[in-house]
Predict the structure.
Amino acid sequence: MGSKMEEPKLPMRPKGPGAQVDYSLARKAVLRAYHSGRVSRFEICDAHPDLLRAARFCGERTTSPCPVCDYGPVFLVSYLFSDELSKQETGRVWKHGDLAPLMKFREARLYTVEVCTDCSWNHVRSQLWVGRGGRARRVRPGRRATT
């Protein structure tokens, strides 16, 4: 009776390189809401023009049709984020299968987004943590990182 229960600590991010977050349940919930009429097509088909452009020119075309319009092909676009990249380099499009160069980072995140270029449907498909592990060095404002 006198013991105090501790609140379970949820991880803020996946543990270690190679961990993956799959967003398929969130995707299914959005599509279920759309097909039941609770969400309009305009609310879920809102891809940014830059995302549509990246899908057209850099995306990997899949064989599956769009889950919203059932017409257009779905493209996969992967984006790379890392604290070790400059502001200009982080968030750039990355070829999804090319993971070997990412091992030079201590920690990097590769987000894969599915996009329909016909109706502008888009949803994050997965997040992959890559790198060699270890603690990333923080760069203080106004200072340059040394490599």
In short: Residues 20-130 form one domain. Residues 1-12 have pLDDT under 50 and may be disordered.
